[in-house]
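Materials and Methods. Structural model of N-acetyltransferase GCN5. The 184-residue sequence of N-acetyltransferase GCN5 from Myriangium duriaei CBS 260.36 was retrieved and submitted for structure prediction as follows.
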Amino acid sequence: MAHRSLNASSATAASSQQSPILSVAPATGPLRSKVLALNVLPDQAVFVDSMAVVLKSIDDDPFSEPMAILTNETSSSYHEAVGFYRLDARQDAIGERDFGPGTVGLRAFLIDARHQGKGYAGAAITALAGDLRLRRPEVRRVALSVNLRNERAQRLYERCGFVAESELYYGGSSGPQTVMILTL
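The predicted structure was written out as tokens:
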């Protein structure tokens, strides 16, 4: 299985430390059981379903691809799953809006509770963008929606280059959401 390793040197503008080196890969085979063990912090559970629910919904959706976020910073944790995201190829996957060809939806993005605060989220967005450029060069934009109450995630996405659309999405199960676009 090929993992794409990318150094996310610009993941956090204020950080002078070396950014983590992450790889991303489809969460199939042995990686599926690794991502199944991922959990978010209790206060984040309102924004993302459990991995069992997410993976089941992906199994039922031919337009979705489960992706593992992996780190290889130490030999003892080589290719340890530290996060997850779902790519959704349906044109109206995000906010029930049609962003047209060349757009993929980013859903269920998470970093495991044990690995938060290490710079992995920003590095994962950089790795995700690099992976899409290599594996799916037809993709030019990534769309996502983020709950208005999830200010921490909104700031992360903005730092990573996502731009908020002016119109909110009101169909989210936990309240209004901002729709954001990253141009690759």
